[in-house]
Amino acid sequence: MAKTETGAPKPFYCSRSFKYLPQDEFECTVINYADPNGKVPLVNIFIKGRPVWQDEHPLSIGAYKVDYVAEEAYQVTPLHQIFADAVNK
Questions:
Q1: Which of 39, 43, 47, 37 is nearest to 17 (CA)?
Q2: Which pLDDT value is given to residue 83?
Q3: Which helix (H) or strand (E) holds 21?
Q4: pTM (2 d.p.)
Q5: CA separation (Å) from 53 to 1, 31, 80?
Q6: What DSSP string runs through 37-58?
Q7: Best exposed site among 23, 30, 34, 36 by fewest CB in 10 Å?
Q8: Cα separation of 76 and 68, whole Å?
Q9: Contacts for 35 with CB less than 8 Å, ≥ 6 apart
Q10: What is the largest CA-CA distance in the chain?
Q11: Taking a C-beta distance cutoff of 8 angstroms, is the pair 49, 31 a contact?
Q12: Average pLDDT for runs of 10 along the chain of length 89
């Protein structure tokens, strides 16, 4: 987790679109923003794969732990020069 100079958690602004697909697959698109109002998009991350179901969750009856394995796609698309510059350092 990123932290500020004072040690407080640094905010992470994003939107997520998650779809369950037939054949026990999923797609997820995450867009990370530079600002809390979502006006300056930095990067688009698209993943596709399958969920790996684990044990039942100990605190929520009927809920299960799951790992999402991005084995079909993991695409990172810079949407702003600031992000591209940071990745290229």
A1: 47
A2: 87
A3: strand 13-21
A4: 0.79
A5: 25, 26, 36
A6: TS-SEEEEEEEEEEEEEEEEPS
A7: 23
A8: 17
A9: 13
A10: 46
A11: no
A12: 82 94 95 94 97 91 93 96 88
